[in-house]
Amino acid sequence: MPLPGVAIARGIAFVRSVQRSDGGFDSYSSPTVIPFHPEKTYRTTFTPALILTALAGNDSATDIRGKLAAWVSAQHSRAWSFNYWAKNTPERQLQPYPDDLDDTFCALVGLYRHDPLLITAARLGVIIKLLLATEQTVGGPYRTWLVPASAPDNWQDVDLAVNCNIAYFLRLVAKPLPNLTALIDEAIHKQVFASPYYPASMPVLYFAARAYSGHNTQQLAAQIIAQPVNTALGAALKCSALTHLHELTEAAPLVQQLCAGQQADGSWPAEAFCLDPSQGGTAYYQGAEALTTAFAIEALTQYRAASHKTRPLRSRDGSQPGSEHIVQEAKKSFTHLGRELKRQVYTMIDKIAAGDTSQEIVMMPQLFANSFRPSKPLTTDTLATLSRANLFGWLAYTIYDDFLDEQGSTPLLPVANTALRASLKEFEATLTGHPAGWKLVHTTFDLIDSANSWEVAVCRGTVQGDTLTVLQLPRYGKLEKLAERSLGHTLTPVIILLLQGYELDSPEIQGMQTALSHYLIARQLLDDMHDWEEDLQRGHLNPIVTELMRATRVEPGDYALSELIPRLRRAFWQWTLSTMCTRTERHITAARRAAARTKLFVPNSSFVGLLDRLDAILKDTRTKQAAATDFLQAYKKPLA
Question: Cis peptide leading into 35, omega within 30 of 0?
């Protein structure tokens, strides 16, 4: 059985060998699902668009993607919509279809994943007009076909798979729409993932997994895990879906299945992916070896990338264990639990570790131990214990935050309680003989809970349907509460200094705490700038929302969200974003200065790297502000 890397390389070679000279790919139509028996060859936009997306994360396929992206891009209409049939193919006249949002957004996803610059602000403005023309309600969901309102009812359907592909595109370029998240939530609740355009549930689950940004990921993952798959296409789609949801343990056997099932020429067999036009009352199904192979390449590539995110981060002397080892050791703390609780804890640990791309959760103690100038060395076991303490605390408060946001998943509450107890146990083990440090731990958790309590009591409006009721606007002052909510993140760096002999009231620890506080504020402001609309729709008055309301003279009272959000959105892009970016930049600068004054850090330390990362996000945010201005201007223009 080939290794994933070998299988990927062989698969790419096969896809390259069957790519047409114009950059596109053929698709095939079969009257049966199993076995898939091709009777017709078609040129569609759909198959090449899916292949482009599937190969987007693989640099070894750059040559394939370049020609393919040019071909897909040439298929768009003046309104930037796409048709199932490729241009200049006979079926455009023999079996005409209107343009539709499924082909449109699968094509747009592929182009954006290949090169985000292909979807300019001006083009995005035109694309948004397509959505406005097809929305069933304001903010979605959206009808499939681009037809007049007078068209028959069978052209007016609202389809889950289609809306998942729209949601995924919006998640890539901006942020998900709450109505589309709610549509997927409804499917999760009903456990029904079906579409008349797809013969099985697995393609719809695949689309949903990559699109979903709600709070029911565990339930969605459970439904995907329960989905039986007996083919290469099913295994590839299921593996990718689970990897999107950070279920790497469940995805691993599917990787083995794919590697074992690769054919001698490097391909995986053609299978029925979606429905084709029927012939004489007989249903036909679309598939292609190149499509199945591209999905398999995507699954293997994404799994490898997600696995590597938790690969070891080494210390300067190479002696410290990496995050992958720490995660595995962390799981051993819960081997005594019952089967279901243990499974849920393991799933949450994997999810957090997979998303910890900066490694500031699992490896926070090692990052700072390596950042400080040589001092009293700490043992590998001590740093690993602090890593577990930080990981478990982060896990607990991640779940608690969902409850504070009124979106908590009740089955996860025992997981949070178990993790919080485990976090305190690890801190206690580290701080034996250090009563000041143990008191700091308890004081810190009290401050976290107090900050959360203040936020729930003061920073909440109520939402009933479209009506937001605001009783008071919170005053965030110097934003200390933003740092206090995440103070657990400061514990391990301070404890490292305590164990090295510094006192709690020393200039070094005081300066370290100041630097970390400014860092946490800056990070939270950047998150709030991204999430303010979603927060407002839930009645959460974060600092950005509060600033917007004061800037636009919104007083306490009742407001229609459908009217308030566009009003605040204009203010956000025109004035408030710039103001909050400047404020965020000041906190990043203050963190750098406080860290420098401690004289604790070596040059180019990991903490400086975390601040550099915030600067990069801030730069990207400012770039998006400029793009938003271009977008608003383009949106106001009629189609040429």
Answer: yes
Residue 449's H or E segment, with its range, is: helix 435-458
Q: 510-513 contacts: CB < 8 A, separation 24 or more? A: 511/594, 511/595, 511/597, 511/598, 511/600, 512/594, 512/595, 512/598, 512/600
Size of the chain, expressed as the number of residues it contains: 640
Contact present, 141 and 84 (Cβ < 8 Å): no
Max avg pLDDT among 36-40, 127-131, 293-297: 293-297
Angle at 229 between CA 10 and CA 114, to 5 degrees: 45
pTM: 0.60
Place of tokens 């906190």: 587
254-290 burial code (b ≥16 CB/10 A, e <16): bbebbbebbeeebbbbbbbbbbbbeeeeeebbbbbbb
Looking at the DSSP bridge assignments, the partners of residue 372 are: 601
- Collapse the DSSP code of 1 into the 3-class scheme (helix H, G, I; strand E, B; otherwise coil) and give the result: coil
Please calculate the CA angle 46-51-54 and round it to the nearest 5 degrees. 125
> Cα angle vertex 562, ends 558, 564, to 5°?
55
Structure tokens at 395: 């896990």
Contacts of 88 (CB under 8 A, 6+ apart): none
Rounded-to-integer distance, Cα 554 and Cα 470, Å: 9
Could you read off the pLDDT of 177-222 as tens digits, one per residue?
Answer: 889 999 999 999 999 999 999 999 999 999 999 999 888 898 999 9
CA distance 387 to 365: 6
Tokens of 456: 């729930």
Residues 6+ apart with CB under 8 A from 155: 98, 145, 147
- Cα separation, 399 vs 182, in Å, equals 20
CA pair distance 192, 184, nearest whole angstrom: 10
Q: CA gyration radius for the chain?
A: 26
Question: CA dist 589 to 142, 392, 530, Å?
Answer: 44, 30, 21
